[in-house]
Design a protein that fits this description.
The structure is a homodimer. The first copy, chain A, has 15 helices and 10 strands. Chain A has about 325 residues and is of the alpha/beta class. Chain A has 2 domains: about 180 residues, 3-Layer(aba) Sandwich (Rossmann fold); about 140 residues, Orthogonal Bundle (N-(1-d-carboxylethyl)-l-norvaline Dehydrogenase, domain 2). In chain A, strand 6 and strand 7 form a beta hairpin. The termini of chain A are far apart. At the A-B interface, strand 9, helix 7, strand 10, helix 9 and helix 10 of A face strand 9, helix 7, strand 10, helix 9 and helix 10 of B.
């Protein structure tokens, strides 16, 4: 029987660990917080991140990451993007060559501008890598609502293994060879989510949101293809699918920040009121640097950066976007 | 000054006529109903289709379509798809060669499986044609909410004229050379809208809807490219943009039908309760015929047809979609 080690007991890591355990696999989950380890093992729950959810009794939580991965044939990393390098480095000595490494982390490492596949290639170069992405609120997967994601890998065999490992009646997994496009989609959507929050905060309707999502995806694809990704990935689950979820689903931290900006708060005000910073803030900065490197224009992301870092007025930003030179729909 | 004749005083035709009149163009609108002609000219309103909206005073309504188009440099057709051929044929003798014909009609002619550009080529072969499409609830355009659409034409000059004619501070128009793709997107979305209503009626969440929209768009693109359209069009305003609007915006007739099916009503029950049939019903039939002609598979549209015409249970249809063979995200 395959043993799977899940690194990170956030809501998504816990949900995937639970799904795998219920499929009959031996699953060990590493949690950073001792109280999460204890609650998982004693009461089969994760009150911190997936409240009121009864976890599979066979799921075993570990406080020691090395212990969790030791001898595991599959590692599923669900650490936050800023912590992924440290988490993988901590277990590197315990990971055998050829181990299947599934990354469920969205977002990039902001200082280096590296995506998770690139971080993994540096830290665990002998693992076989696949990125998991797509429109998947953890709570809904836990409720067994029909969900579809992609497993992206340049190694077709690794993608296939990920599909077979994870798929079940309510969880459909498509393979995709375009790892970079999959990772870009998962990261850049957070910038567009801030813009969606701005429209929401201004009380705007469906036409503006549909235009934002479509033109937002067009610029993500423009950046992605310039960096070497396949344009079709952005029409898929990790692009469009996740963007729809983020801009129309439950209010995320990124959208909430956009709503606050529309109501006249500054980024500094908002950051003071909340303990943590929305992921889209750092991604907006990273997007600007990636766009400069690739030599492409990202009109919406650039306006989001102006809202965040130059306190531009939201109505002014929208007017400037609407009054740009008339263009063909496909431009580069 | 350019004179524009708008054919059809539904909410969309009226809104575009009003927008053009407010831009200073001479606009004549032809309305089928005498009471609409009278209300437009006397009280500057269209109480039937755009209630509580004050229309531009310069807008002139006509009861006679030939009179409306006579001498007009631009004709904007906003007739319903089943009536477009008859409306264009009725004015054919009054239309000069080289007239710009803008079609704001979405959907196809069900008996012939022809899209509006193909109908226009038969009826007004000497006009220069452009299709208007994209995510645009008429009411929101009337309220001057930021909206983006495409003007699609194989004639770049015609597309450019359409852009300049229509664009204003709240209405952004992109050009696109792919007429067929633009028309396919506008028609096929109604089938996916029925499926979205089914998910809604079953009380499903955001993951299933995002998966439906993404995989729905994938199959529209699969059909479209097999018929000769450009795949990129489906990631644009007439594809993805309009699909998002239809599946997440105000409850349309198509989504309402899906909700009813999910609650156990049959198509016959629903049709008895409502005077008119949802456009997606005929389009589901047409999609099946187009798919057979193109030799492609449309898994979701096929299930919608089974729900509509074979009374398949919605939960069974979803289970069958989720349990298909595991596939790559891009398949043909």
């Amino acid at each position: 029987m395959t043993t799977v080690a899940v690194l990170g007991a956030g809501s998504w890591g816990t949900t995937l660990a639970d799904l795998l355990a219920r499929k009959g696999l031996a699953v060990r989950i590493w949690a950073y917080e001792p109280e999460v380890v204890e609650a998982s093992n004693r009461r089969h729950e994760n009150p911190l991140l997936l409240p009121r959810a009864a976890l599979a009794p066979s799921l075993r939580a570990h406080q020691d990451a090395g212990e969790a991965v030791s001898g595991a044939g599959v590692i599923l990393s669900a650490a936050p993007s800023h912590a992924a390098r440290a988490v993988l480095a901590a277990v590197a000595d315990d990971v055998a060559a050829g181990t299947l490494l599934l990354s469920a982390t969205k977002g990039l490492e902001c200082d280096t501008l590296l995506f998770m596949s690139q971080v993994a290639a540096q830290v665990l170069p002998k693992a076989r890598f696949a990125a998991l992405s797509g429109p998947s609120f953890a709570r809904e997967v836990f409720e067994r609502q029909p969900t579809a994601i992609v497993a992206a890998s340049t190694d077709a065999g690794a993608a296939r293994e990920a599909q077979e490992l994870l798929a079940c009646g309510y969880f459909r997994v498509y393979s995709n060879p375009d790892v970079l496009g999959t990772e870009i989609g998962g990261a850049l959507k957070n910038v567009i989510a801030i813009a969606a929050g701005v429209l929401e905060g201004l009380g705007m309707g469906h036409n503006p949101l549909a235009a934002l999502v479509t033109r937002g995806l067009a610029e993500i694809a423009r950046l992605g293809t310039a960096l070497g990704a396949d344009a079709r990935t952005f029409s898929g689950l990790a692009g469009l699918g996740d963007l729809i979820l983020t801009t129309t689903g439950a209010l995320s931290r990124n959208r909430a920040l956009g709503v606050a900006l529309a109501r006249g708060e500054t980024l500094a005000d908002y950051t003071t009121r909340h303990r943590s910073i929305a992921e889209g803030v750092n991604t907006a900065r990273a997007a600007g640097r990636l766009a400069a490197r690739a030599g492409v224009e990202l009109p919406i992301s650039a306006k989001v950066a102006e809202l965040l870092f130059e306190a531009k007025s939201p109505r002014q930003a929208i007017a400037e976007l609407m009054e740009r030179t008339l263009k063909p729909e496909q431009w580069t």
